[in-house]
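Exercise 7.
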Amino acid sequence: MTDNNLANGGRILVDQLAAEGADRIFGVPGESYLAVLDALYDTPEITYHICRQEGGAAMMADAYGKLTGRPGICFVTRGPGATSASAGVHVAFQDSTPMILFIGQVGRGMSEREAFQEIDYRRMFGQMAKWVAEIDDAQRIPEMVSRAFHTATSGRPGPVVLALPEDMLSTPVPPPLLARPYHASAGAPEPGLMDALWQRLERARRPLVIVGGGGWSAAAKAELEAFAESARLPVAASFRCQDYFDNEHSCYAGHVGIGIDPKLAARVRESDLLILLGSRFGEMTSSGYSLMKIPNPDQPLVHVYPAAEELGRVYRPELAIQAGSAAFVRAARDRTPPDAGAWQDWTAAAHADYLAHNQPTEVPGRLQLGKVVAWLNETLPPEAILTNGAGNYTAWLHRFYRFRQFRSQLAPTSGSMGYGLPAAVAAKAVHPDRPVVCFAGDGCFMMHGQELATAMQYGLPIIVLVVNNASLGTIRMHQENHYPGRVSATELTNPDFAALARAYGAHGEVVEDDADFAAAFGRAQASGKPALLELRLDPEAITPGATLSGLRARALAK
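Solution. The predicted structure, written as tokens, is:
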């Protein structure tokens, strides 16, 4: 640029991101936003992490949003880049994670011609983002980026998508004033509604809190634990939100997710005051919408949620409280706790049931995955971060590991395969001082296994545990339940995962017996670099409590 009084859109955008406190970008470079990459050259306070596929980049941004509570920032190019990134946007939407996806777009003079890689992103992302827009005027960048940060973090958090026409980013304009940094907002509960809740607690004999959703923090978790302790209230975690409450706390009642403990499921049904705190109580948490009747639950229901549109959407609550989870637990903590005399035995029994269900089970084969997870639980510090994607292998981690510290679990409530490795890379980048262990099935790992190269590039010593049963186990399980013996499209031919890791320059080993796991894990840690341990699991061990042949026999006997 020849005029020092002008700036291009790329420069303005990067300056506004810096003003908002952005410190990391996850992305795959594209020619459609070269002006942004050029501006980043002069902005060392923002680190650009080069990822190997846009879906992985978007999942890293989601993990960043979960870990920090600030929007994870992802940049991708138009067309194929945006379609690949949509996997991570969907994760952020269903998980209520603050995230902003920036997409390079065709030049303004080429729009509506189906130019090279052109897509209308408002139509494409309309159902999976809180707001989708295109910035056509570089002088409006501060305004629209500010709105993106506020939208992504306020109410029910979620993703925002902004398209950036290539010529808008590169054309010099008089620089506008930058917007002030954003502040997230979530409403506090009305005192009258808190009074109504306390009146219900005074009448209750079998209360149960189910916690989940977005907008939480370590401070909110601590407030919740203090409130639960003072009121001796049993607290269960919704699907893949197990780190929202210390699993070793005497009020913890277990995980209301896939493969729920039947005793916990019974408690949900028998509760005479069910408090959903930040949770939507979606399909996975509700066991396919079977734990509560729709629209009128049998259980007296109190629903606390930050977004008004979710209250009464599926279940009609007796009491609806629109409030952020953190604001709600602060308000609850400030009140005199209710008398717990009527339910303290109920709470103690709930925790005892959880501890009994938490004991590892025996499965076919030399490698007992329950014992592996139990060893990790005993060995890893509370601040360790464990990540996973989707698949039956996750049942062992969710059932047998005890999460103690907030954001020690990164897992997609959307059930997206391939999430674990990108999430682990982001976690180690954000928290280099915390151990990070990724669980992945063989099918799950192959979705985004190339992000091991990203871990190598940035020297992020994560440890990846690939549970290899040579099949897409979840689908195989459903096949045996519904079409016993008719195996189709679920058997996998896999690479030597340990050799593949070594090809990337990582440490790689195969573990076929759980007795060998501790030593192998120690060598992985001692290597000081990204590491992968391939855990070869007997295909018969389809879940912690079932075998393939057993499922088939039961299905054939029907």
